[in-house]
């Protein structure tokens, strides 16, 4: 579990303004990756229904359009192998964006994409004990992949991306039309665009934990959250 870390020590340029698009989020609950081949091995749980037979033709379920959501998996009829993940509905708030200007010549937008993966091991089997799914703990994802891209700007864009970490250290990356990096939360990601100073922005990625999970006392699946941030320019 990650300890909460405040971003107050991370400086944002004094000239920055909060105007601009707010981050958007899309996400999917991905089907388990079983070692078993039986078509009726697994059941799924949603916030709207209790356990139901896993439809093998489906590979994922989209997050709810808004608000909290939850999803779970278990071996058929075996509560002790269950894992249920809850989402608090505020995943986009992990990223707070400050724009250099409310009237930029090129517009940057921030989008968040989340995948929640479950993997059962080969040893999954029924046990006699069952503690119930009442103890939810945060699902940690200490690092976040960040991409800075020119989506549809007519000309090439030269990016300078500065990551300011919680301890005050910085890393600088440059690239034309695209920069890929991995960021350890919490951190500030400042994007400067050569010749387009008003179009720059700072994305503050905090250490909030919007996902929690509870597990049965048996061979429940492993849960992993993959959380990616894209900073795109000229989205349409």
How would you summarize what this structure contains?
This protein has 236 residues and is mostly beta strands. It has strands spanning 24-30, 42-46, 49-53, 60-62, 69-75, 83-87, 95-99, 108-119, 137-138, 143-150, 158-165, 170-176, 178-184, 187-193, 201-205, 211-215, 222-233.
Structure, described:
This protein has 236 residues and is mainly β. It has one domain. Helix content is 0%, strand content 47%. The chain is built from no helices and 17 strands. A six-stranded mixed sheet has the order 4-1-8-17-10-13, with no helix packed on it. Strands 3-2-5-6-16-9 form a six-stranded antiparallel sheet, with no helix packed on it. The chain starts with 23 loop residues before the first strand and ends with a strand. The N terminus is likely disordered. It comes from Plicaturopsis crispa FD-325 SS-3. This is Unplaced genomic scaffold PLICRscaffold_15, whole genome shotgun sequence. Keywords: Signal.
Question: What key attributes describe this structure?
Answer:
mainly beta, six-stranded antiparallel sheet, six-stranded mixed sheet, 236 residues, elongated, disordered N terminus
